[in-house]
Structure formats: C-alpha cells, structure tokens
Amino acid sequence: MTDPSPKSLADRLLDRDPEAFRELVETYKKRFFGLAYEFTRNHSDAEDVSQMAFIKIFRSIDTFKRGSSLNSWIYRIVVNTAIDHVRKRPFFPAGFPESAPAASSTGGEDPVAAAERKQLRGRIERALAAVSEREKTAFLLHHDHGLSLKEIAEIQGVSLGSVKSYIFRSVHKLQKELSAFEAGWAKQPAKETDHA
Amino acid sequence: MPKCRDFRESVLDALSGSLPAEQKKDLERHLADCPACRAHFETTKKAYETMDQREQYDPGEEFWAGYWDRLQARMAAEESAERAPAPLIRGKFRWPFAGFPRWIQLTGAAAALVAAGIFIGRSLSRPGFQASPPAAGPAASVQAAAAESDLFGRTSLYIERSKRILLAVVNFAADPKDIHGLNLPAQRSASNELVREAAALKTELRGSKKRQLERLVGDLERILLQIANLQGGDDLSALGVIKAGAETSDIFFKIDLAELSAASRASGPQPGTPRPKTL
Lengths: 196, 279
Prior knowledge:
The complex is a heterodimer of chains A (196) and B (279). Chain A has 196 residues and is an all-alpha fold. Helix content of chain A is 64%, strand content 0%. Chain A is built from eight helices and no strands. In chain A, helix 2 runs antiparallel to helix 3, helix 3 (43-60) packs across helix 4 (70-88) and helix 6 crosses helix 8. Helices cover 71% and strands 0% of the residues of chain B. In chain B, helix 6 runs parallel beside helix 10 (184-207) and helix 10 (184-207) runs antiparallel to helix 11. Chains A and B meet through helix 2, helix 3, helix 5 and helix 8 of A and helix 1, helix 2, helix 4, helix 6 and helix 11 of B.
C-alpha cells in the first residue's frame, strides 16, 4: 500500500470524506503507536496514546489550516498527547519497566549474537533515558520517522537551530553511552574550530 | 565563504538525504580537508546507524488487524458518554428566564444564587441539622454499585482466565516425558478469544476510571497477543521470549495485587448496603 499524499489526505479530511479518516488511521497507526511506545515503554499506554491522538485529530480537524503541513499538525498532536500522558502517569504500577520487544526474535539465533544484541538494546535504552524529552523527541522524529528539520521545528514550536542542537546533543549522549560498547566507535567529537 | 559551523549544520540534512546535490559536494570536499568536521560527521552517522539496529516493538498482526475496530469502539463509547443527558439540565427542568433579554437572565441567575446561598446557610446553621443523602440517592447509588460490581466480576474472570494460560506457558518445560505438555492450539485459541474481549473491557474500565485494572488488562492483552501469534509446532524460542517478557514485566505480581484488591473489596461492606448509623 502506498502512502496517500499528505496534502490530498488533508483536503479530504477537511471535506469530511468518510474514508479519509480510516485511511489516515491505517497509514499512521504503526508510526503513532511506535512513537507513543518510545515515550511510554508500555504496550497498553502506547495504544491508549495513539488512539487518543487519532480521536483528537478527528475532533479538531476543523482547526487545521488548509495548505499547511498535515504531517507537522498530526505529529504535534501525538507528541503532545504522549508527553502529557507520561507526565500524568502515576509512578506505580505503570512505572514498571516493560520487557524489551519480543516480536522480532528469530529462532536458532547464535546465543553470543543474541546476548550482544540484548546488551546493545539495554545500552540504547539507557542512553535514550539520559536524553531530555525535547532532545529525544527531535531525534526520534528525525531518525525513526524521517521528518524534516523544518517539520520538527514546527512540531516543537522552536527554531531550526534549536532542533539541530537538540539532535546533536542526543547524538553526543548516545555516543557517550555506546562508546564503550562499540569498538569502532569514534571518540568525543573534536573541539569545534573554524578552519574555513 | 561557509565556515565549519555551517557545514556541521548541514550534516543532518546530508544523513537524511535531503541536502541538495551541490551542497552535498561542498560538504564532501570540506570533510576531506577538515578532520574535526569529519569526526563530527562520523560520530553522527555512527549514532544513526547504531539506532538503525535497534529492534522496534511490534505487537503483531492480530493487534494491527483489530486496531481500527478498537478505535471505533472507543470513539463510539466516548461519544455516547458525552451525549448522555445531565438529568437536571436537559430533562424536565426549564430555565424560567428563557426568552428574556440577557441582562434579565443574568439578574435572575444572580438572585437565584443568593437565595440558594441564604437557604443553605440557614439550613446548615439550624440546630440539630444532620446532612442526609437526597431522596433519589440510594436507588441511583445501588444501581451504580451493581454495575461496578459486575465490571469488577468480569475483570476478575478475565484476569483469572489469562492467568491460567500464562501459568501453562510459563511452567511449560520442553520435556518429552511430560505427558500433558502444552496444548498450544488450545492456548492460542483461548488467547485469541481473550484478546478480542480485552478491547471492550478496557473501554469500560477506562470509562469507570479504573486505570490500574485497565493497564493490567492491557498488559495481559499484550502477552496473550504474543501467545495468539505463536506459530504452530514447538516454537520454543518464541515461548522463551514470552516467558522472559512475563517475568520482566512482573505480570504475576500485578495479578497478585489485583487479586488482593478484589479480595479486600469482597470482604468489605457490600455495595449499596447502608452503613450502620452512628449516634
């Protein structure tokens, strides 16, 4: 299935085309759930957040300005919903760390490779936990969701320079956590100097 | 003349493939000459590549197939809850100043508020006053308590049935001498059934603000989905992953907490039973 162009989908949503909302859900459900899961680390909460985001989109589509970026608008809704949800969540019992993803395990995998993968996963989780909410949001939207820096700036309501700064800070924190793990990992980036 | 700072800022666009060809060539030329910027570029690229290796959580086909239906059910439930009329406002009550100019309506409302305040103040200060529930209160609260009790009952049953499946999976040992073994098709079928029931139950629990129970049902649903998605035959590695997932998510501890809470509800005063009067 090819993604419908966001602009035409936006127009159809605004025109209250009954099929458009279904199409939006089918197109974005995995992305929204995945993003929500990154914030909540819990299956049930991730489904709850993604559904809440879709419901908000459905109810407030009239406030979307025709001609602007649908991607930015809907991602802003899901990011804000996820952040609100995490902030309001009680510490117990939702604070339990949930098991790492299980769906993609492959049978007959080399135990050493499996152990290394598990270790890497743990380090990535720890590294992401050390990254601030804004930095993590910018990094995930750019890396996982392929959003442009301009779209991320619109979603976060900050300048383009701030988005770049958030992403580079995430990269440095990730590098710090992972440098011990990867043998070929580059050391701290050299001090910024102008050579031009 | 672009400086190192400008080139470094274009690294992210280069990695996402959105840097125009001309600027990309400039960047490549600069990286060849500038070790500091090259290190910066390599670090960022490496971080992106490492994050590519990260496993994404995927709840399975069964979950995605039912996503739209669950969303529709939730939207319908929320819509009907919002449409439920507030009896006093939308029922027989009619605002006596309806149809009058707005300033008269506001004056009337203010006067009614003052009168109500005086009445309540006098009633409370009356000697021997004792607060008592409104006449319609007990019937409504008994009805609400019965509905809540029914929801608790169904949730307990759901948890109990899920627990049996989880115990069967967690305690399963791939021992050829074990004559009982794990009846995987039956467990998958039962898990499927419970997964289908989970959506409606979660919606009801959410509506009743039983967030902890809703989360527990959601956590159970996730593990049951994994069981329902097991392939035929002895998928031992997948079973191992499910067992590990059940252990690390402390699912049995959460179930124990829910059962303890249910037991304390059952041993407490029955819903709707009037409390003994105190002197």
